[in-house]
Amino acid sequence: MRRFFAILKKEFRQIRRDPLSLGLLVFIPAMLLALYGYALSFDVKHIRIAVLDHNHTAESRALQDSLFQNPYFDRIATLTRPEEANELLNHGQVRAVLVIPHDYARSLARGDTVSLQVLVDASDANSAATTMGYFDALADRLSRKIRFKLTDQTLPPPSAPGVLLEPRIWFNPELKSAKFLVPGLIALLLMLSAVVATSVSIVREKERETMEQIRVSPIRPEELILGKILPYVLIGLITMAMVLLLGYFLFDVEIRGSLWLLSLTTCLFLFAALGMGVLISTLTRSQQMAFQIAVLSSMLPAIILSGFIFPIQNMPLAIQGLTTLVIPRYFVAALRGIILKDAGLAALWPHLLGMLILGILFNLLAAARTRKAS
Asked: Which of 335, 300, 237 is nearest to 26 (CA)?
């Protein structure tokens, strides 16, 4: 244990002697969040839909057939209770829930206007707006069919009954893009800073030829790695707090969920990201090479393969499989669940487990590489 604390103390001392790097780690993510949050303001298919049919008639089934005979909607579930809608939306399993009222067929037979309710998950504001646009087009098409059937005329009169859509926007009622983007930006910026910081830490020891002294000391690889990453865990938590405060004051992004769950999620993410950075440092021999590999392996996957901008379910299956190795994929989903939806551990545990597994994998590989090099 004394050997571990010696490495920990040495790493804190090294960070204190390099205030420029410390400033970059803490303040650059905050600056980039403000820049991207203001600058970024995205044809969506296979939108996951659940149906709650209170009517159970031929008319309601015809409505559902017309809804799912296109590539834009995928039926995920048919519900029997309103509580199931809340559960599916909280877990992010569906993007919207269509609610067909009890008097749907009777209102159509009387020639009344029918109101259909749509519960929309707006944590992704762009997808929510697209989803509502598709539902509006569907309601307009159904209204035209009903008017033609009732009037038997070439042109429907404007006063004829139809279908009226009543959307209910969940998680992001204002449809602000910032509330969708900020959690993804947090994951992107923390991933970049964490991987870059640790990827150069051991390489710095190699370039200064102090690694040989460490190798001949009795310290074990596991103690070396933990001593290297724990200071950056603390810095990452401070950076996370700053970025969340900035998101609140600049973009009105409030944390709806549990702070302890957010802290746990952040620690697991940092454990995985820093382990990846240490693994990169064991594979390279210069800070320049470590920096380049760290940027390429953290930034591009975080943007393209994490679900930050591009929905993972729209990607080819092979690419979807590849995203399971991308740490921000789990962190982005967990952050959106906690910050926007007040999701609990029951909804988020698969994402936490994914980060834990990747963290253990990367740190074990880093320890094995360190042991081999010594």
From this structure: 237
Q: Which of 106, 137, 170 is where one domain is finished? A: 170
Q: How many domains does the chain have?
A: 2
Integer Cα distance of 64 and 131 in angstroms: 16
Q: Is the domain of 224 the same as that of 271?
A: yes
Please calculate the CA angle 44-98-313 and round it to the nearest 5 degrees.
Answer: 30
Domain stops at, among 155, 170, 185: 170
Instruction: For the beta carbon of residue 5, count every other beta carbon within 10 angstroms.
Output: 11
Structure tokens at 140: 């307009």
How far is it, in rounded angstroms, from Cα 60 to Cα 83?
21
Whether residues 190 and 160 fall in one domain:
no
Same domain, 191 and 280: yes
DSSP letter at 17 equals T
| Domain co-membership, 131 together with 204 | no
Residue 1, C-beta contacts closer than 8 angstroms, at least 6 positions apart: none
CB 123 within 8 A of CB 172: yes
How many Cα neighbours within 13 Å face the side chain of 359? 25
Tell me the average confidence (pLDDT) per consecutive run of 10 residues in the chain, 374 residues long: 68 68 64 60 72 89 81 86 88 89 84 83 78 80 66 48 63 71 86 85 73 65 78 86 87 89 94 92 85 86 84 83 93 92 91 96 88 62
Closest CA to 125 of 183, 178, 177: 177
**Residue 150 belongs to domain spanning:** 47-170
Q: Which of 279, 284, 323, 281 is nearest to 300 (CA)?
A: 323
